[in-house]
Amino acid sequence: MWTCLNNESFLSFTAHWIYPEFISQYGVLAVKPSASSHTGINSAKELIAIAERWNIAQDKINLLVHDSGANMVKVVRVADFESARCFIHSMQRAIKELFKSQTDVLEMVAALR
Fold first, then answer.
1. 4 neighbors 10 (Cβ within 8 angstroms)
2. Nearest 5°: phi and psi at 39?
3. Is 57 helix (H, G, I), strand (E, B) or coil?
4. What is the mean pLDDT of residues 91-107?
């Protein structure tokens, strides 16, 4: 889930898999505007519907990687997906908080914008 600068929201579903020959592949299975609220229940329903549309059985979804947002934590609980929080997203949030205390960095970023 993400929201553009114009406040339009989108949901995406990306799959990653490995062929028997150990060839790694990936594909975007869906990107769609999300008119409904980003609640865990609404998002879980959308993700389950996308998986069903592609005939992906629940036991074939090994891991859903997500940010640490409360809505996404609820999505994986409601949809009963195995999940992991994205390490890079967590690092980005920690660095952003660190920069808030560095006025010189904030001024430089503002000047660059």
1. yes
2. -70, 160
3. coil
4. 85
